[in-house]
Amino acid sequence: MTLVQWLENLDRILFILIQHDSDHAILDRLMPFLRDPYTWIPLYAFMLYYAIRKTGPATWPFILLSLLTVAITDSVTTQVLKPLIGRLRPCHDPVLSSVIREVIECGGLYSMPSSHAANHFGLASFWYFSIRTMSGKEWRWLWIWAAAVSYAQIYVGKHYPFDIIAGLVMGCITGTGISLIFNRWWNKQAVFPKYKLMA
Predict the structure, then answer these.
(1) Most buried pick, 5, 22, 37, 113, via CB within 10 A?
(2) Which CATH class is domain 3-196?
(3) Among residues 177, 181, 193, which one has the least CA distance to residue 61?
């Protein structure tokens, strides 16, 4: 057995442990709710409020770079990496057809990397490091949010655990990289220190 085959088998075992062996009626309702973009509208509204009321002259850069982060993670994962890697979703994998539970509809053909994981960890990274620079606050709950959404992707049968890890890495690299651009710009502005007290 090659290393790649061993990793694929491990990924399937972990997937079955989460998606099949850890099932519960409450989780069957909760997990689709967690991965639904509409669920998090209040969070996005809060972040928009925070950007407008707390970041002063950095409002538009903060908002635009947040959008850029998602644009990069989503387009790269969906249009480039998934077709290039060509890994079938668990719900399309014939090896798992006898054990997978249909919590939601299967959806697209390819799964690696997870766009949900890349998008949410990208935003979590950008927001965490940018807000820490502006205000000194460390919003660790952003990582919990991204992890919860990503775990839900495994539970509903959309992704393998390694798909999530790949999306996490891609999202964190993107979000952290864009936060470095934002932070460098922020630190160059002599007029901003007064806003650090507000944030």
Answers:
(1) 113
(2) mainly alpha
(3) 181
The kind and range of the H/E element at 4 are helix 3-19
> Are the C-beta atoms of residues 120 and 149 closer than 8 Å to each other?
yes
Which stretch of DSSP H or E encloses residue 186? helix 161-188
CA distances from 110 to 86, 93, 123, 169 (A): 6, 10, 23, 18
Tokens of 191: 């007029």
Taking the C-alpha atoms of residue 62 and residue 46, their distance in angstroms, rounded to an integer, is: 14
* Cβ–Cβ under 8 Å, residues 7 and 162: yes
Asked if residues 57 and 195 have their Cβ atoms less than 8 Å apart, the reply is: yes
Distance of CA 98 to the CA centre of its chain: 29
Tokens of 171: 């999202």
CA atoms of 62 and 27, how far apart (whole Å) = 35
Contact 113, 77 (CB under 8 A): yes
- What does the domain layout of the chain look like in residue ranges? 3-196
Which pair of structure tokens corresponds to residue 5?
Answer: 């085959």
Report the C-alpha gap between 184 and 180 in whole angstroms: 6
Q: For 102-131, give the DSSP string.
A: -SS---SSB-SS-HHHHHHHHHHHHHHHHH
**What pLDDT score was predicted for residue 197?**
41
pTM of the model: 0.90
Q: What is the pLDDT of residue 43?
A: 94
